[in-house]
TrEMBL record:
Its cofactor is FMN; [4Fe-4S] cluster. PROSITE patterns: COMPLEX1_51K_1, COMPLEX1_51K_2. This is NADH-quinone oxidoreductase subunit F. Keywords: 4Fe-4S, Iron, Iron-sulfur, Metal-binding.
Amino acid sequence: IIAESGGQAERLLDMLRVIQNRYRFIPAAAIDQLADTLNVSRSQIIAVVEFYSFFHLNAQGRYDILFSDSITDRMLGKTELLEYLANLLHVKVGEVRADGLVSLNNTSCTGLCDQGPAALINGLAVSALDCAKLTEIAGLIEQQIPLSEWPESLFAVADNIRKPGLLLQTPITNGAALQAAFARGLPTTLTELERSGLRGRGGAGFKTALKWRLCAEADSDQHFVVCNADEGEPGTFKDRVLLNSQAHQVFEGMTLCAAIIGAKQGFLYLRGEYQFLYDKLQQVLQQRRQQGLLGDNILNQHFDFDIQIRLGAGAYICGEESALIESLEGKPGIPRNRPPYPVIQGYLGKPTVVNNVETFLAAAAIAVHGADWFTAAGTEKSAGSKILSISGDCGLPGIYEYPFGSTIREILADCQAQDVLGVQVGGPSGVFISDQELDRKLAFEDLASGGSFMIFNQSRNIFAIVQNFSHFFAHESCGFCTPCRVGTALLKQQFDKIVNGYGSAGDVAELEALCRLVKNYSHCGLGQTAANPIISTLERYPELYQAQLKNISYEPGFDLDAALAVARRMAHRDDPAAHLLQVEE
Ligand code: SF4
């Protein structure tokens, strides 16, 4: 396994994945061998194993099932289906069955919200689950049929492209962007990209041409290009579709970037949940090598460049660019201090461009069609279009592309959403907008979004939504800095207390103070946005929070009287005076 990965410590995640697949956990002997061979300490390897949720120090079942726990999966009946399967297979959630055949658990959003409820079985996605499908799956497991012999239909994943726009309607032909760029000249192509106003599509919106220019101008013997395909924001799945249907163009955008910044090596960091795309993407890379669009002397321009695909292992934080680079280097994905920014010191300390899948797709299109074509759509500050992943309460969930400046109302009409309570724009780290704000616009100057667009109708409970998001952040905090590690856990606890009916006015004040603390003092974007679901719903629905509260200044977060029952038994005292109720009276 080590030899297949070239014996490089940076490939540690690849090695661990193969070991995990083979043994169902990472045995101590494997850790020792990796440590000796890679010259990395044993504790460092254990730190990596413990950091990523797809690696385990204890054996999982031969069939390891992880149910996607996104709010939209829950809205589609995930909780009941999980229980149904647990009963069928006689296994408890979070446990391995005694015979070792199967284990069952939850995982964060798997990027299949347009066709949920979804799950991963030994890393492979199964979607649109219902009782019939789960009964079939349980039967295959009990018969111990290898996954490779299961009906292909079980693993079908649809693209669901509902509304193609600027980019999806006009895919480029292979090599067109590179040919156009070399014909125009690389410096002029970068100027064209600058003129297009393209901004990063991951959500932050940094100017793409400026990023490329800063990296190109950074003095170094090596430069790198990284495509961030770790779209872990719940409700986002557009990169899954782009990589399935337009991978050539994404790789072409990466190659264009490499030509401009002087990189010889690129990486596609693919989220572990999209393992089912891995072989197909490798085939696309191979085709491009055969077409002379990757490898040595690309298009006879004395330009060498190739791309490796690296799989993540279930850590949302690796979507943050510096955490992603740490992960690429075979370490836990803990965000770095910035500055220095990756364009100056990125992968292996060398200048590195990290861009989202959609950004590379757009860059390739701009190289072919020009800046004017791109700026003809969108607004002054947000040129071009945005690809959205639409899920939740609507008739047609899927992929939609809109020119920036489109209103939320227009989008809701297209996807057949009715009786809308609100929309979570940009995923849990984004903002919840109410039905009073439907004329707001999709644009960096109004509602910026990485692409997640979750719709909730009037039958939904705001608290259930926010609770799901709060639990998500507490689970995904990487634990590096105290405001986020402790703060997200406290937010979750405090919010649960209110949802469970133990909240008081004092608790809401404390919740608001906690939100400010986590937002202002956390090290990276995860912590800085973790309180957004609470802040945005508190602002919009103060009356709902008030209605949920008890009219006293303090209430414990649990049933204190019941909790003291054990102590009362031990003290042989269970008379009325021993109960808290008596104190209140
Ligand atoms: Fe890690 Fe959270 Fe701190 Fe970011 S804010 S470094 S995710 S603990």
